[in-house]
Amino acid sequence: QPNFGGGGGGGGGAEGRGLSPPQAGTGGTIDGKQFFRQARSQLSYEAFNDFLSNIKKLNNQQQTREETLDEARRIFGPEGQHLYKEFELLLNRHAV
Question: Model pTM?
Fold first, then answer.
């Protein structure tokens, strides 16, 4: 199971830990660190923390990938569909 730890953005190097895929052949998609930075800048503090909480549940096997995607869709809302799509791609890249 991959570790989708987003970090809080407060420390150097902690954010996106475990989510950054190799750079070769990634096409137009962003890596994990870029994704978390983008999500943090576009979501409210509460929404971002809610999102991180859901990733933690996924990592701890307390919720499924599908439940995590459903929660992400709810958190990002209609205006954050681009974030949802990027998150889905990141999950797919790290699916085992």
Answer: 0.69
